[in-house]
Amino acid sequence: MVDALGNPLRLILSVGERADITQAESLLVGYEPNAVIADRGYAADKLIDWLDRLGIEAVIPAKKNRLRERPIDENLYKDRNKVERYFNKLKQYRRVATRYEKTALSFAGFVYLASALILLA
């Protein structure tokens, strides 16, 4: 999760074959955002309903197989690239990109270190 400037706020590691949406609620707990901007992979009714109950705007386009499109703020959706740019910066650190570390704890340590360096740059 990144803030409006693209700075990392929270990172949660999950197993490689699990969908990212399983961590969405865990990422948001403790924060009070006005909007959540995400790609189509997060367009599950359960997550969108949860965001609506909390009064958070869901700027998540509907999946292609949906019968009806959900309206989203296109201008706000353009800011989704800040997450992509953060991950691009993170992958510039070779040790993170190639995942040399065998344990999740060691890998997380290097991800946090790289994130701190990104924040300082």
What does this structure look like?
The chain is built from six helices and two strands; from the N terminus they run αβαβαααα. The chain is mainly alpha-helical. It has a two-stranded parallel ribbon.
Q: Low-confidence segments, ≥5 residues, pLDDT <50?
A: none
Sheet having the most strands: 2 strands, parallel
What is the rounded Rg? Answer: 15 Å
Tell me the number of strands: 2
Topology as a string of helices (H) and strands (E)? HEHEHHHH
| Residues in β-strands, percent | under 5%
Largest sheet: spatial strand order: 1-2
Total helices: the number is 6
Overall geometry: globular
Oligomer: single chain
Portion of residues within helices: 40-55%
Quick check: average pLDDT?
91
Secondary-structure blueprint of this entry?
Blueprint: H1 24-28, E1 35-37, H2 45-53, E2 57-59, H3 74-77, H4 81-90, H5 94-97, H6 104-120
Parallel strand pairs: 1-2
Short description:
The protein is mainly α. It is 40% helix and 5% strand.
Give the tags.
121 residues; mainly alpha; two-stranded parallel sheet; 6 helices
